[in-house]
Amino acid sequence: METQSLPLPLPALVGHHHLASLAAEIHRTYFLKFPTLQVRWGHQIIRKKRRSIRLGSYNHDTTEIRIHPLLNAPNIPAFFIQSIIHHEYLHHVLGPGHNRRFHKQELLFHYHRESKEWIRRNLFLLLGRKARRIARLHEIPPQLALF
Ligand SMILES: [Zn+2]
User: Fold this and answer.
1) pLDDT at 96 (0 to 100)
2) Class of 19-137 per CATH?
């Protein structure tokens, strides 16, 4: 786990999930023949007018996976965080594109359907109420999480 000092105090809810354990389980279950990748929480960036959120990323140069720190909260289910870790591991294995092969592999994650359903219902937990109001006002569907 990272122990960097942050410029602003984090909300009390943050700091719930043990990322290393969640990542180890994904590696052990799905990617055992590949090396273990470093999985870290990203840095907290305070942005008020969030319209979309990048929940995870994979860096091809460092082979490191970053997970958005807003997910480190008790109202975020562990399986959802693991779905993102699984997705980013797939980028390590299959490259940057989201092609047919990628989507097929994504289905192998045991809670794939639950994860899609969870984010569909709870994206606004992450984007905030303001984004929900803006989306309604303009009758636009909430932007799906990018990762
Ligand atoms: Zn992706």
Assistant:
1) 93
2) alpha beta
